[in-house]
């Protein structure tokens, strides 16, 4: 804020950018709200010095209404309680038709959001599309499972021998039916697989110590075959992972940005078409090239010459 600024309140939100002249080009920040002729709010925390002085407000070239997409490298999530990391929801014990080998249920922190506009504002301005760098990275990099011993036809490695059998981790996250902690509740019942009481957590097991999650030898519930690609739909058996359902960080980022751009152009609603990038559920990361007719009708494109 400042006296004598005489800012024009009619300029569209999210479109014009603000920067103090003394700061570098990396400080340009979208204007989120014009309060009055002497005060404005920015969409994102200002990355420059913030020490005051002369300023410039610009509309990025070309001089038509533009949609600004920002990669937020600081925030841990769009919601106040999110810490950026993936988080454990529970597990389904092996058995039954739905999960015969069991299933681990994890969720990811919100990877992006769009600051959409009100119905009154949509005819004249776009929202702001934001991708969140840390949740995207954690989704790929978090590995909360220790790669433990692997059950074979001869049983678990015998740790009570002298010398003990060497552990035999296989570099993949085995189904819950092949580990001792079959309910994934950090309370394994020794002997479930018939090895007798040896005091060891046989099989892969979960850890809540997030400082160990960056260990390259640990395992992820979203990358159970440990090849650096996340699976969606989430897989439960590494022997049955479909390569067509695996994605790298670039693909997840592309899908996230495309989804948030569509929100910024059309508003907060979602699509009921499972093939649409705006589908209400995350069923895969390969829908960024398809927008359903119903959702396309919601898009607003502004080419207002100023």
The Cα radius of gyration reads 25 Å
Multimerization status: single chain
Structural class given helices, strands, pairing?
alpha+beta
Form type: elongated
Describe the fold and architecture.
The protein is α+β, with helices and mostly antiparallel strands. It is built from 3 helices and 13 strands; from the N terminus they run βββββββββαββββαα. The protein has helices at 133-141, 249-266, 293-296, and strands spanning 17-20, 29-36, 39-42, 55-58, 69-72, 87-92, 103-107, 112-115, 128-132, 145-146, 205-206, 230-231, 246-247. The strands form 5 sheets. It has a 4-stranded antiparallel sheet with strand order 3-2-1-4, with no helix packed on it. A 3-stranded mixed sheet has the order 5-9-8. The chain is elongated. The two termini are 25 Å apart. The mean pLDDT is 89.
Summary keywords:
single chain; 306 residues; alpha+beta; four-stranded antiparallel sheet; three-stranded mixed sheet; 3 helices
List the helices and strands and how they pair.
Elements: E1 17-20, E2 29-36, E3 39-42, E4 55-58, E5 69-72, E6 87-92, E7 103-107, E8 112-115, E9 128-132, H1 133-141, E10 145-146, E11 205-206, E12 230-231, E13 246-247, H2 249-266, H3 293-296
Parallel strand pairs: 5-9
Antiparallel strand pairs: 1-2, 1-4, 2-3, 6-7, 8-9, 10-11, 12-13
